[in-house]
Amino acid sequence: MTANQFSRRTFLGGTAAGAGLLLGGSSLLAACSGSEPAALTPVNFQLSWFDSVQFGGSYIAHQGGYYERFGLDVSLVPGGPGVSPDAAVAADQALVGISAANFTGQSVADGAPFKIVGVAMQKNPFVIASLSDNPINEPKDLEGTRLGMAFNNQLDLELLSELNDVDISKIEVITSDYDPAPLVNGEVDSLLCWLTDLPVAMTVQGIDNTTMLFADFGYAVHSQTLICTEDSLANKRDQVIGLLKGDILGWQEYRTDTDAAAQLTVDLFPDAGFDLAAQKLQASEQLKIMFSADTDAHGFLWFTDESIQDNIRTLAALGVDVTADLWDRSLLEEIYADGPVLA
User: Fewer C-beta within 10 Å: the chain N or C terminus?
Assistant: First the structure.
């Protein structure tokens, strides 16, 4: 495939991930729990985006009956651009939701009673993606180039530039759709996107690309965070712990066989138009940002005091003022009392 043959259609047919695709899929998992035993407590788990292997560990937990082990009949509710997990949790429409520290931090600043109780992505998924024959390897490389991105990422670019002594006036910012076509067709030199979507779409199409993670250059914002309300922590603590335990078991299994997680996703959503190769690559790429030395030492979803302070500083620079009280690690400490692997 030549550069000028790469179109939005070829991209949308290949992959779906957490930052900006216009691909909707009916959630089989939100509606398939009718035969569960009456003793199970029904709860909703609000996902942050459309169905895809981005949530593969949760699909494994659901299909494997891992939530049921802890007395829960969990419905996995898909998200999308018109869905706010924070709002769903605040309205008691979901016990737990998947959000991000910047969104939840702003909600708390506005008076919402949320706590972050787990962090699935140990590194923020924002990257600068470029073609490998003209790579952006570090922020300074952006000077003198054309960057395609959404308008609402301006503050993120400004912070990355400030953290790395980049003269942002030397970057030509071009507002673009969330699509690899502008890069592949030579309209821009790089794109601001997620590690697990546009680069995956290009790789599957045989287009060599290079990614530069914001997280490797000082940008610390917890993403794919699990949130609940203070009321749920006080009055539904066992349910929240049960959901976390079931999810952890699913993600532990995901880590051992990402191809199986991709196949499960494709099988669960046959009408979504997923490309198995793209789902497999996305599933494996997620390992880079969902597991770390900290999760190896303490368990999946773990977050450290140091990472909290890094987030507080980054969020302040983005105009969101929070304190360490936004995070609550007590549930994870209880879950992993006997070690970092849940049996």
Answer: C
Alpha carbon separation from 143 to 151, 163, 164, 291 (Å, rounded) = 19, 14, 12, 32
Enumerate the H helices of the chain as residue ranges: 8-12, 56-63, 85-90, 101-109, 154-163, 181-184, 198-204, 230-235, 237-256, 258-268, 276-290, 293-298, 305-317, 330-335
Q: How many CB atoms lie within 10 A of CB 73?
A: 17
Q: Tens digits of per-residue pLDDT, 118-165?
A: 999 999 999 999 999 999 999 999 999 999 999 999 999 999 999 999
Going by DSSP bridges, is the β-strand pair 190-194/146-149 parallel, antiparallel, or unpaired?
Answer: parallel
CA dist 219 and 205 (Å) reads 29
What is the token pair recorded at 263? 């196949």
Query: What count of other Cβ atoms lies within 10 Å of the Cβ of residue 180?
Result: 29
The full length of the chain comes to: 343
What is the per-residue pLDDT across 39-62, written as a single tens digit (0 to 9) for each?
999 999 999 999 999 999 999 999
* DSSP secondary structure code for residue 154 in this structure: H
Between the alpha carbon of residue 183 and those of residues 12, 85, 135, 273, the distances in Å are 15, 31, 12, 24
pTM above the 0.85 mark?
yes
Within a 10 A sphere around the Cβ of 90, how many other Cβ atoms? 18
Specify the DSSP class assigned to residue 4.
Answer: G
